[in-house]
Amino acid sequence: AYEKRFPTCPEIPVFLGSEILHESRSDDGAIHIIERSCKLNVDAPRLLKKARVEYVFFIQKNTVNWKERTLLIEAHNETFANRVVVLETCSYSVHPENEEWTCFEQSASLDIKSFFGFESTVEKIAMKQYTSNIKRGKEVIEHYLKELISQGITFIPRWTPPQVCGQKDERNLAVGHNADDVPLESGARGTTKEQTGSSCPPAEAVSPDADKLDADYIERYLGQLTPMQESCLIRLRQWLQETHKGKIPKDEHILRFLRARDFNIDKAREMLCQSLSWRKQYQVDYILQSWRPPALLDEYYTGGWHYQDKDGRPLYILRLGQMDTKGLVKALGEESLLRHVLSINEEGQKRCEENTNIFGRPITSWTCLVDLEGLNMRHLWRPGVKALLRIIEVVEDNYPETLGRLLIVRAPRVFPVLWTLVSPFINENTRQKFLIYSGNNYQGPGGLVDYVDKDIIPDFLGGDCMCTVPEGGLVPKSLYQTEEEPENSDHIRLWTETIYHSASVLKGAPHEIVVEILEGESVITWDFDILKGDVVFSLFHSKRAPETSHKEATLPSTSAAGDNMQLIDKTWVLGVDYSRMESPLVCREGESIQ
Predict the structure, then answer these.
(1) CATH label of the domain that carries residue 6
(2) pLDDT, tens digit (0-9, with 9 covering 90-100), for 378-422
(3) Is residue 414 within 8 Å of residue 376, measured between CB atoms?
(4) Residues 358-362: what's their mean pLDDT?
(5) What's the pLDDT at 153?
């Protein structure tokens, strides 16, 4: 029940999210340790504004001991760690005299070294947060216990010591745990093993320093890999562990980028680093929790999930011909449509993981069925096509190898015109997955029935299955936005309030940012990712303000690099006009610096 509050918990509003830094299990499976970075929104806006910090981060370590039947929770602050030390310890255990009772103990310590003269304020805030956490802790646990009971989970078998497994299949029943596994799921797997006559513990399919993947793990979660492909996956994952401090994607995700670049590690690494930075910058990891589609999309966006195809891939149906793309762009704008498309892709990955567990084999992509009945010249509206191309570019860069098959049915005569405009922007590997049917030749052998079970073919395509995908229609002009974003905008910004920017740094043309210090005890922070190449970071101080006429650097701006700014005048002399405040820091490719 406790694990269900991760990675986010609506029951705790100040808890904004978390990510796993490290996870390990003992050889016998009795001890499971997870260390997370937790993002909190503390009720101290003025204080945090003084320190130039929007959120605070805590490191939380949870240790489940199935043998001793205990849960130990240890937390300490990462933000302001050199000024304030907050330590909190909680434990759950079985009552020694009554096994039906759970004991709960909690303690905390606070050591304030210095905090810009706000030491007493910090102490009051900490005590307020601590008191609130104790009050809410029981309520949150009870909430998730009730949720488990509503799902029919009222009992988890006791942990038993491992036995020597005689059969390979039994030994590997629990192989392939990923970062999302929680103790409850381990217990559920234990039920399965008891039914098969084995009590083997969950095994770590992959260790950080492993030079070989478990064969059954590959077959169960990744699919067939050649020794070369397996080696590429291990090397790229090890590089990510070294540069991203353990905060790395799952093997399935890494593998998609390797496949998209034909297992060229350098190209795959560059593509993956760009994507990880993009996900961080625009908070894509939280889009399924944060994005709420406008009501207009529910009625006029003609797409939705519909069971799965014959290969077990999640099936998405898009009635593009019935969609008023021009009306949607004018009523919602490109950003809302892009967010919606990203949420569809995130949901698709989630459904792939679910189907992998359901069917017992790796499902890493989904199938899209596009009905073009009704496609006409209105769909070739230039700003709409431009928006479509931008969306395709974002999806191609960040969700490679997620589309298993694209079935296009009832393609009209105008389709070749649209295809000519769009196809050059689609990756060659992706284009090979397209199957296009004109007229009614999708019916019968060689058509949809080869890829989708007959009993789930939608009624509007001649099947017997009722499909809940909206029928669409024209968006009323009264819903159009009054002010449109200029058509010559080069970027889709997603979250316009993001504090991140992109820049290209070349020798002799640095990217410089001026920070005006208005208060003597201000705190300067920096946070950036190195996408490609190595960069030297320096911090200087000057009492002179840079001349605005010299700030523009003579570098071309690209969609990948962004804008470069050069502020220090070439006539300035180091040690005279400005001084160095920090030793130069060499930042390697792929590193994340805070």
Answers:
(1) 3.30.530
(2) 888 888 888 888 899 999 999 999 999 999 999 988 888 888 888
(3) yes
(4) 91
(5) 84
Check if the beta carbon of residue 319 is closer than 8 Å to that of residue 474: no
Both 319 and 273 in a single domain? no
Same structural domain, 374 and 430: yes
Percent of the chain with pLDDT over 70: 78
Q: Which residues pair with 38 in a beta bridge?
A: 18, 58
The 8-class DSSP code of residue 532 comes to S
Q: State which residues form the domain around 504.
A: 498-545+563-593
Tokens 């060229």 correspond to what residue?
264
Shared-domain flag, residues 443 and 516: no
Q: Which of 265, 188, 199 is nearest to 231 (CA)?
A: 265
Residue 42 lies in a domain: yes
Average pLDDT for residues 3-32, to the nearest whole number? 87
Q: What is the rounded CA–CA span in Å between residue 410 and residue 447?
A: 11
Q: Please give the Cα distance from 141 to 104 (Å, whole number).
A: 11
The answer to whether residue 405 sits within a structural domain is yes
Shared domain check, 261 and 126: no
Using CB atoms within 10 A of its CB, is residue 8 exposed (0-12), middle (13-18) or buried (19+)?
middle
Verify that 411 and 527 share a domain, yes or no.
no
Position 287, amino acid: I
Q: Is 187 contained in some domain?
A: no
Q: Could you tell me the two tokens for 350?
A: 């989630």
Peptide bond into 162 cis (omega under 30): no
Helix (H, G, I), strand (E, B) or coil at 19: strand
Number of domains the chain contains: 4
pTM, to two decimals: 0.54
Q: Which of 110, 132, 151 is the last residue of a domain?
A: 151
Phi–psi pair at 51, nearest 5 degrees: -95, 5
Residue 87 and residue 139 in one domain:
yes
Cβ neighbour number for residue 326 with a 10 Å cutoff: 19
Which are the contacts of 389, defined by CB distance < 8 A and separation ≥ 6? 421, 422, 425
CB atoms within 10 A of CB 177: 21
What backbone torsions phi and psi does residue 378 show, to the nearest 5 degrees? -60, -30
Q: CB-based burial of residue 228 (10 Å sphere; 0-12 exposed, 13-18 middle, 19+ buried)?
A: exposed
The average pLDDT across 238-258 equals 84
| Structural domain includes residue 229 | yes
Co-location of 271 and 303 in the same domain: no
Pick the closest to residue 37 from 24, 23, 49 (CA basis).
23
Q: Of the candidates 373, 348, 344, 530, which has an alpha carbon nearest to the alpha carbon of residue 442? A: 373
**Hunting for tokens 């950003």 — which residue is that?**
335
Question: Tell me, what CATH number does 374's domain have?
Answer: 3.40.525.10
pLDDT of residue 409: 95
Residue 62 is which amino acid? Answer: N
| pLDDT of 55 | 75
Residue 103 shares a structural domain with residue 69: yes
Instruction: Kindly give the interhelix angle for 382-398 and 265-281, rounded to the nearest 10 degrees.
Output: 120
CA–CA separation, 62 and 25 (whole Å): 12
- Parallel, antiparallel, or unpaired for β 592-593 and 528-529? antiparallel
Residue 354 phi/psi, 5° resolution?
Answer: -65, -45
